[in-house]
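Most newcomers find our protein records easier to grasp once they have seen one. Read left to right, the backbone structure tokens trace the chain's path through space. Nothing more is needed to start thinking about how sequence determines fold. An example says more than a description, so a record of this kind follows:
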Amino acid sequence: MIRFILVLLFVFLFLVLSIPLMLAEWIVGKFNPQARDKSSLAIVNWAFRWVIRLSGTKVIVKGEENVPRDTAVLYVGNHRSYFDIILTYVRVPRPTGYVAKLEMLRYPLLNVWMHLLHCLFLDRKDIKKGLKTILKGVEEAKAGISICIFPEGTRNSTDQDFLPFHEGSFKIAEKADVPVLPITMAGTNGIFEDHMPRIKKQTVIIEYGKPFHIRDLDKDTRKNLSAYVQGIMAEAYHRNLKELEDMKAG
């Protein structure tokens, strides 16, 4: 419970004490949006790195050389833990907005930082509003802001390796003509979700696949894009889970 209390206390203090920074970032954004994007990214990365340290999480990263630094991308990841966002956000090389559920707007101060970081809030119950969110993501990607989406649509708390992917998850990459970059995370549910509310020391593996443009795929693959991407991620997921199990057996 000590780690949980430390993480909770740190997040609370960061949100409260960063109120002047939020105001400063808002002012900077009025005159220089790019400078605001860079500084907001740096501030939140600093906070997230401390959350990772306090949680005792060791991160093994594979394929990070596959992440483009000169263009926006659509990150597509599996989702088994709240920590997935924290662990991946500290590694983004450029401003990146995450697609989050609409309910995240309920959390004061946190929602301000999410707006500053170009996060998108998806209403999963309203198709028209959901479409508007995707179109906003297309605009952001065209403007050079990377987007990260979890195509399962929610955190996977089942025994299945993956929940079904939503086909609409890839529309941002298709319409904005930016690369899709699969991210596969293994072991992240062992940090918190497997034994809530305790946070335990855990080794996790994050693997970045090779980016690809949807337009470069053949017609049949484009028709079955979800299955194609899930297949790439499933291979990495099973391989990295076995590596983690072998490390524990060790």
